[in-house]
User: Which sequence fits this backbone?
């Protein structure tokens, strides 16, 4: 019975990142149409992605504290409702208003505020419910669900846009409200945590970063770069397909899904295999970043469609190796009382990475294809060096600070905790 409940909870939680990622990915294939219909510049179009992600990135730390104080489940459900309401506002503005750009952006900001309480809090909830190999597996499924959302959303967005380009906005409330109901009935939180007062809470976070910041902060940066490159390239491909290759509609959405499929399959396998083996995690992260760097450098010399998709897919496989490893390290870096804030800070920098991707790629695209990918190759190489020299997971285990006697006591306590 307990195993069945765990499976139901895992399925319910895995829907959260899937719904969250639709907020950006489903719009990607529609952006050129929005540019034409609303008579916008390339930069204005990029703000449909950026404002959503920026709002989420700024709000996530606040939501993380609230989830530690009052529980994850309620925060997720309320956030999904806000997310859906933002979609309704944007959809109605596009449908009924003549000059709707500003109101659509406001709706996107509201959606971003709602998204702040979804996937990052789901990571913390997984850390609360599962442990050991089950935790790594659940985090891998979570990242894969995120990727599945990225795969299907360009296709779904293209199909829905056949009705009308703004119909995608009305898809969000349907998915968000249905997921909220499933979370309400399908997820059973463990014993409600006793949240700390804010001053004590901030003091605990300061202590965490003092003890583990040397690898936590670089890990945050590497995760943000991975998402920055991924969404920047999706934005780039969406424009290139229509302007250079004259590919649009469902075919464009299907081709956009190919690199993401590589990432999803890799993320799922990685999450299932790494467990809590921190030396293995570090090796896989390095391999993933090597693949990403090589792919970005090589693709700068090719502009033919087949080479472009093949090499970007190789880079996406590298990202699929990287992200589940970071998720496992960061989620397991602290105890339950501060986990929501730590995973939320990580989610915040990931969203900020997504936020800055489209406008910066928009600027780089004006220069040249080589400029785009040489820049990304250099950034990938930087993150590779950071992963090698600064992220040392074998030396940073959750709560393992203090004297040898304290560590021995902690180990004895851990051996008494049954695996869920």
Assistant:
């Amino acid at each position: 019975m307990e195993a069945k409940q765990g499976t139901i909870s895992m399925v319910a939680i895995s829907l959260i990142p899937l719904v969250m990622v639709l907020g950006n990915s489903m719009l990607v294939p529609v952006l050129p149409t929005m540019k034409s219909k609303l008579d916008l510049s390339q930069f204005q179009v990029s703000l449909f992605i950026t404002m959503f992600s920026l709002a989420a990135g700024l709000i996530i730390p606040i939501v993380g504290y609230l989830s530690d104080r009052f529980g994850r489940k309620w925060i997720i459900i309320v956030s999904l409702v806000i997310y859906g309401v933002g979609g309704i506002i944007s959809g109605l503005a596009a449908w009924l208003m003549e000059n709707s750009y500003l109101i659509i952006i406001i709706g996107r900001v509201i959606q971003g505020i709602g998204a702040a309480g979804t996937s990052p809090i789901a990571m913390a909830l997984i850390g609360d419910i599962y442990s050991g190999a089950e935790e790594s597996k659940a985090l891998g499924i979570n990242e894969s669900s995120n990727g599945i959302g990225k795969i299907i959303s360009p296709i779904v967005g293209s199909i829905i846009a056949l009705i009308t380009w703004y119909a995608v906005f009305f898809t969000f409330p349907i998915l968000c409200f249905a997921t909220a109901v499933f979370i309400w009935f399908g997820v059973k939180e463990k014993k409600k945590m006793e949240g700390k007062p804010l001053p004590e809470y901030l003091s605990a976070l300061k202590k965490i970063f003092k003890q583990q910041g040397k690898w936590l902060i670089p890990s945050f940066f590497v995760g943000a770069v991975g998402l920055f490159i991924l969404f920047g390239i999706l934005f780039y491909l969406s424009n290139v397909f229509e302007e250079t290759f004259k590919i649009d509609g469902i075919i464009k959405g299907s081709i956009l899904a190919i690199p993401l499929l590589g990432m999803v399959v890799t993320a799922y396998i990685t999450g299932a295999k790494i467990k809590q083996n921190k030396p293995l995690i570090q090796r896989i992260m390095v391999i993933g970043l090597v693949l990403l760097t090589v792919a970005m450098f090589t693709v700068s010399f090719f502009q033919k469609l087949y080479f472009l998709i093949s090499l970007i897919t190789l880079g996406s496989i590298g990202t699929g190796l990287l992200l589940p490893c970071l998720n496992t390290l960061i989620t397991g870096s602290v105890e339950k009382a501060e986990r929501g804030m730590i995973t939320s800070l990580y989610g915040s920098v990931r969203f900020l990475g997504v936020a800055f991707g489209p406008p910066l790629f928009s600027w780089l695209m004006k220069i040249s294809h080589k400029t785009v990918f040489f820049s990304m190759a250099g950034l990938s190489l930087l993150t590779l060096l950071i992963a090698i020299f600064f992220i040392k997971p074998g030396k940073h285990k959750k709560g393992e600070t203090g004297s040898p006697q304290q560590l021995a006591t902690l180990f004895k306590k851990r051996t008494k905790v049954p695996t869920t």
